């Protein structure tokens, strides 16, 4: 068993070192691109060391403060930190691609017992950052308690800490195995990922929806001199409080803060922690064994023909450029990430619409959205913004298909035009839907401004398109668009620069609209001003595409080998 | 003699590695040219240079009489390629993939439909026409890549290991198809590790070792330089200098 663990430890270490040392870069730009991509993880790794020391010190102070009863705040901080760590354990394996349960399947070819494989899988979770950061306070709280003279509490906290650690590493293993089982069927995997991509960001809005108060009620409460009550219904609050008490972080805190002579207050939470640890590990082993038994992907995905839609040519484009644009849209709409670009803005619009109807307004990051036009503006720009992960890594969606395009009679101008139009269509679909829905749900406002919004969107996208092509060529990143989170995002540098280019491209439209409405007091002039700007943006974009074409030409060889 | 592929001093380096070291290829029009070499000899790099995926470090090339560096689109309009990694769109179906190729080549709808039906039928991919390529087996992918290369009716085919992973029945049909392609004046540039296939199909061969062309000509000419009765395998081993003592481990 020790030999197996030593081999696994060496394997993980070698994989980490090789990923940092051997970049396989083919030119200077690629070396730079890879280096910037590694900057984030390296910085996180560097920050991990002082963070661990700080958390160890916090644990020590919390233990001592609790033992002497002089300072209880540090223990409260540790309590919330452990709660956050449990939450990360639940969502970490979903959003971070670093843990892949399926990797264990290849070890089935070696003479290793399944229990040993499971133990290696579970202990591998100790290397996850949130688990690494959880260990120092769990280790130092008992020391602090012992230093404060509470030896029995220290021993209990040590056992509770071990159980807590077993729970979080067991949960990590259980969730990664469960995800692997869930995604084993490719068709189901796409659906699950689409649900997660759309549902996870929406979770943040749940409290707002639950506590949303009708505008009329709020006005009535205000006129009666009462403060508006932001509370959720009483039943939900009671249920949440009861469930909260059984969270591992709460049980651990109860053990660590229990005073001397209160055996019941220690035994029950300790038994609870042990029971949860046992249940999580048993379930984790079961899921892991099932994953090993059924590793293969089941089911083949079929696609509808969409009639003659895809065989048509987009007006204004050559047949080849039109084919690239249509293929781009089709490929995008077949990935969970691409589908989420359509579904998420529409869902957001419906939620925001519901909140505006109910409360009269929807405050969002300091901006008040209370009319159909403001909602349409906000959601349409969100729609364009949501394609950044695609647009800033636009060749990655083709994967090996990029090489195919290099083998076909397709000029670079046609390829880039096709990609720009394809991305535009992907963004336009949700943007136009949001625009139309907002107009239907909340009609009113100046028709000129509604028209101006569409022109502003077009001008913004036209300027972003050449920048997106350039960034995709300079910072290519091999991504899995079936996954969520970092695994499907564009290169960090491309994402950041793309966001900046979006802001810079949208600024002239916003300024022109403000100029017409607030300085000239002639909103009806806005479409005209923006139409002039649209023409200027079109010319600037065409000019920008000239050096971008040369840049992409110089990178084609690398890109063809990259994907 | 007219050459479909002609290179002079073609070279490609990767850092200090000279993957292709100044080769002069002469592939006659209407020939079935087998390009042989051990692993890492430079076969795929040569094909990548000829098809425009890699820019040569030095040398000149003419593909069907056109300079592919100066006019790549014209060359690509006339050639079909099955590359080493097949280069397929994972999230398109087989028929969509063919439709994309047809659209880029500017084919009329009726032509595309009739040709793709023929090719899908030949490759036994009819039942998988609406399945995403991501869910294809390796053999099915290879067949689709072949269909994609044949769809625009090219005059020159570059095939990198086309028979690897393909079942015997389809392999036989594809070989017949390639024979009739050559008989109608088409040219095939093929790399394969299976020497029996090259021996049976090729009219001409070229042998590359460590980036250098060590033999080239018609199969009969290359053979005539070797001892009588030698198989292509023996000839190949002689040319690339691969004869080694048989491994005999007493622990095995």
Number of strands of chain B: 10
Indicate the radius of gyration of chain A in whole angstroms.
28 Å
Q: Provide the low-confidence segments of chain A as ranges.
A: none
Percentage of helical residues of chain B? 25-40%
CA distance, first residue to last residue of chain A: 40 Å
Compute the number of helices of chain B. Answer: 9
Q: Which sequence of strands runs across the widest sheet of chain A?
A: 1-2
**Total domain modules of chain A:** 2
Average pLDDT for all residues of chain A: 84
Strand content bin of chain A:
under 5%
Oligomer: heterodimer
Please list the strands of the largest sheet of chain B in the order they lie side by side: 6-7-8-4-9-10
Largest sheet of chain B: 6 strands, mixed
Q: Tell me, briefly, the overall form of chain B.
A: globular
Give the helices and strands of chain B as they follow along the chain. EEEEHEHEHHHEHEHEEHH
Structural category of chain B is alpha/beta
Taken from the alpha-carbon principal axes, the silhouette of chain A is globular
Radius of gyration of chain B: 19 Å
Your description of this structure?
The complex is a heterodimer of chains A (563) and B (252). Chain A is built from 21 helices and two strands. Chain A has 563 residues and is mainly α. Chain A has two domains: 49-186 and 239-293, no CATH class; 318-559, no CATH class. The longest helix of chain A has 41 residues, at 28-68. The two termini of chain A are 40 Å apart. Chain B has 252 residues and is an alpha/beta fold. Chain B has nine helices and ten strands. Chain B has helices spanning 43-51, 72-78, 94-104, 109-122, 138-150, 168-183, 195-201, 219-224, 232-240; strands spanning 3-14, 17-23, 26-28, 32-36, 58-63, 79-82, 156-160, 187-191, 204-209, 212-218. In chain B, the strands form two sheets. In chain B, strands 6-7-8-4-9-10 form a six-stranded mixed beta sheet, sandwiched between helices. In chain B, a hairpin with a 2-residue loop joins strand 1 and strand 2. In chain B, helix 3 crosses helix 4 (109-122). The radius of gyration of chain B is 19 Å and the shape is globular. The model of chain B has no long low-confidence stretch (mean pLDDT 90). Chains A and B meet through helix 13 and helix 17 of A and helix 2 and helix 3 of B.
